[in-house]
Amino acid sequence: MKKQTIDPEARDLKIVELCLDFANTAAWHASDQPEEHLNDYTDVVAWAKSVRLVTAHEAHRLNEEATRRPNQAVTTLNRAIALREAIYHVFSAQAHGRVPAQADLDILNKERSRALAKSQIVAMVSGFEWEWMSDETALDSIMTSAVPNVSEGENNDFFEQNGVSVGGNRPAGRCNSAPSADTRLARQSTHP
């Protein structure tokens, strides 16, 4: 895979586009010579900064932490690439009318479980909301934001227009994501 770098210029993405942008951190994915944009952990952080998941301060802190824990940074990079590949394969299969491979779904489910383990339900006056717990030293905190969250939501049209649906009588999915490690992440209200 040919190496490329992440453009540090920040982009504003809709929540629903975030996981698909993450899937595109390998350009020309289906070609004989795809271009890899995630060459080391700092590239994962650069991507997160470019889509405004982390601030410049948070990016600096994560990169410093990665320097202190290089083995964990490599492990997180490998997990990020595996997640990226699974997202790409699942959405590509759906877009082409194929059933995604179970191995790819297993990766998504494992990462989704890890992400949900970092969430909690909080009571609000009007119901309940999901809140993401912050861990300022978690090198994998960025990955939580890239995991597709298949659920009912306001972004269903985007997926339907792009050939992706959950199946059955349920609406299409959306990518539920977080703006940063130390702010509330995409909240979903539940009313009793």
Give structural attributes.
192 residues; Jann2411-like fold; mainly alpha; two-stranded antiparallel sheet; 44% helix; 7 helices; disordered N terminus; single chain; disordered C terminus; three-stranded mixed beta sheet
Description:
The structure is a single chain. With 192 residues, the protein is mainly alpha-helical. The protein has one domain: Jann2411-like fold, CATH 1.10.3300. It contains seven helices and five strands. Strands 1-3-2 form a three-stranded mixed β-sheet, with no helix packed on it. A hairpin with a 2-residue loop joins strand 4 and strand 5. Helix 2 runs antiparallel to helix 3 and helix 3 packs across helix 4. The N and C termini lie far apart (50 Å). 34% of the residues are buried.
CATH architecture assignment: Orthogonal Bundle
User: Helices and strands, in N-to-C order?
Assistant: EHEEHHHHEEHH
Strand content: 5-15%
- CATH fold-level name: Jann2411-like fold
Number of helices: 7
Give a short synopsis of this structure.
The protein is mainly alpha-helical. It has a single domain (2-161), classed as Jann2411-like fold (Orthogonal Bundle), CATH 1.10.3300. Helices cover 44% and strands 9% of the residues.
How would the blueprint of this fold be written?
Blueprint (H helix, E strand, L loop, with lengths): L1 E2 L11 H9 L2 E2 L7 E2 L4 H10 L5 H13 L1 H26 L6 H15 L2 E6 L2 E6 L8 H6 L9 H6 L31
Parallel strand pairs: 1-3
Antiparallel strand pairs: 2-3, 4-5
